[in-house]
Amino acid sequence: MLKRHCLRLLVIFTLAIGTMVSADAFAQGSAAEVYGKDVYWNATPNDVNNLLKGMKDQVDADYHMDIRTLAEVSSEPEKNPILYRSGHYNFSYTPYEREKLREYLLAGGMIIYNTGLGSAPFYRSVIRELGLIFPEQPIQRLTSDHPIFHSYYDVDRVEFTPAVHKTGYKGNEPWFDAIEINCRVVALVSRWGLAVGWQGEVKDEYQAYRPQSAVRLGINIFAYASAMRAWAKNAAQAMKFVDADKTTADKVSIVQVTYNGVWKTRHAGISVLLQTFNRKTQVPVKFTLTEKSLTDPSIYDSPLMYITGHEAFKLSDKEKAGLKLYLKNGGFLFAEACCGRKGFDLAFRKLIASLFPANPLTRMPPSSQIFQYPNKVTTVGLTPTLTQDLGKSSGQPVLEAVTVDGHCAVVYSRFGMAGGWEMSQSPYARGYNEIGSLKIGQNILMYAITQ
User: How far apart are CA 316 and CA 344, in angstroms?
Assistant: First the structure.
């Protein structure tokens, strides 16, 4: 993962009920805390200051903090790139505040919520409010391979107080819920208290992280935000193509599979891929992406479907039956683990094994037609994170396939490509670079319509 150097890129951090941090220079910054009606918003007054001091001592990053009300927070992330809010009790935003936060987060900002002493009422309020702010994007728990747990330290295992385990939670993995938009965490929720760990005053009766775990998670949050901040500006500029001619006959079109979870990780990637495919091959395409559930009978009229995601997912029995029938009837499924995330990868492999136990995912050989046309693909460039993992900057592309009743029914990439189609791979993506992603994507489309 991207480590060590990331923190020096951070420009602003905001804490909430509101807190915000702003970096003035390469290794210096400022923070502002946003407060509201909750009188316990500052129950641990030295939490953020201690965290920032720890960052200076441990990772040579220097920041300072300001305190602001939500009304004082700018909707322009450049002025307050990160917001932090802590609390103990139920709360709700006004419609205006929700709209302001949505605008701020979509523009590249990030907000972090700390549950004071693991407060369930505050946690439930955050989950409810984020659902109202982003009704189209479900909140989900981040699995231990998420880059936020590895951006500086590897903290996929942590130490909790006994009170956490008394709630019935028996694991030792950190618990963060998040809203992710275009492969970026815009809102992060810590189920258990971080602030008391930052302050260094953790009692066994608190539902919280032990200090070392809390500090390392805090530093990771800063590192992740730093790496993602500049990238978010470019990601927001991704192209998207629309159809001038609304007819669909004799055009390559794609149906994206919906499911219970975050099934849309990128919003423009498919349309960009189709545009480059059309330019490369002159094959007519339909840019508009149709989104359908696997229980929709009209999927059997769609020769090509696409499924992706970051985290683990499960299909209902009816969805599984619909997918199996679709594939047995000659349909083609293009699947991708967005950003090369392990949660989706493991879940997809489990799904295929349950549908076709006698037809496992099998790696496609370099001689396969899928690597020959319209692009001759022998090696592709890798993202920096995948390069670090594999110890090389390029390699032979890896695609796996499932054959059903004599035809190739599934082509799957465990390495991410959608960000490459948008020419904006996430800094933490385990995938192919932009050129490689487009070439492989174009080849998969051609393979799907000609095999």
Answer: 16
